Amino acid sequence: MPLDQIGRTMPNRPVEILDDLDVFAEQYAHDRAGPPPAQASRLRDETIRQLLPFANRLAGRYRHGREPADDLEQVARLGLVKAIDRYDPERGSFTAYAMTTILGELKRYFRDHSWGLQVPRRLQDLSLSRLLNRTLEWLRAAMLTEEAPAWPAEGTDTVERNPVAAVRRQPTGLRVVLAGEVDQDNAGCLREALLRFVRRAPAGSRLEIDLAAVPLLAAAGVTALLAVYEAGRVRRVEVIAVGVQPFVRQIAVVSGLGVLLRSNEDAAGSN
């Protein structure tokens, strides 16, 4: 075998998966104990380079999925570096230790960065922007009642299903800020959320529904808001809509929601 830069014997080709890695690793462990730090560092780098094909072959076992091959190789190489740095000949076979370390890194990568099913990226993000929304919904309810509310059920908390963006206390009652379109997909969830606020509000208070960030109000949304208005009349809670955009105002007036409407100037004055 030729000598390396510090006079140690090294193989004249990259180490393959069928080579006896234990013998190679034991030689490396012996050689790294003698030279000064700078030479030991060069010996480490050369050893990593020689063993890269071994790590790449292990990464190749998982190339049938959607994960980029380059990413898998980088993860496998990270496992290889960890194995080389932590290897102690007294603990047994380097081959077994390196394979366990590299495969462990690959499995950790899949656990943290991929899904069991091939789910589109948009749905992966939606599952997370759902957990966050469910948490915010629970916190909003918790701040409005003395009892800890139940954790929101799965599938009822996405932005598409619940346009409630914020709930703010005011001297006169509550202001509920909506965001996004209100249509048949989320009107039912909105109705239930607003009815909860009406039921918890004391008589004589006001529930302001801020529609400034609502670009479209479909028929189902109009029906939901009318139901909340009627519930407020029964419980003597004033329900009004503020900050309504001109186009949404036209829809509301034609649909019979004029009883809820207040001008933008009134909305600004009620803040």
CATH-defined architecture of the largest domain: 2-Layer Sandwich
Number of strands: 4
Order of strands across the main sheet: 1-2-3-4
**Count of domains:** 2
Strand content: 5-15%
The helix content, as a percent range, equals 40-55%
- Termini distance? 82 Å
Query: In CATH, what is the homologous superfamily of the largest domain?
Result: STAS domain
Describe the sheet with the most strands.
4 strands, mixed
Number of H/I helices: 10
Order of helices and strands: HHHHHHEEHEHEHH
Give the helix/strand class. alpha/beta
Radius of gyration over all CA atoms, rounded? 32 Å
Q: Segments where pLDDT lies below 50 for 5+ residues?
A: 1-11, 154-160, 263-271
What CATH first level of the largest domain would be assigned? Answer: Alpha Beta
Name the average pLDDT.
Answer: 77
Give an account of the 3D structure.
By secondary structure, this protein is an alpha/beta fold. The chain folds into two domains: 21-113, Rna Polymerase Sigma Factor, Chain: A (Orthogonal Bundle); 159-269, Transcription Regulator spoIIAA. The chain contains ten helices and four strands. It has a four-stranded mixed beta sheet with strand order 1-2-3-4. A hairpin with a 2-residue loop joins strand 1 and strand 2 (173-179). Helix 2 (37-60) packs across helix 3 (69-86), helix 3 (69-86) packs across helix 4 (94-113) and helix 7 (187-200) packs parallel to helix 8. The longest helix has 24 residues, at 37-60. The chain is rod-shaped and about 85 Å long. It starts with 20 loop residues before the first helix and ends with a helix.
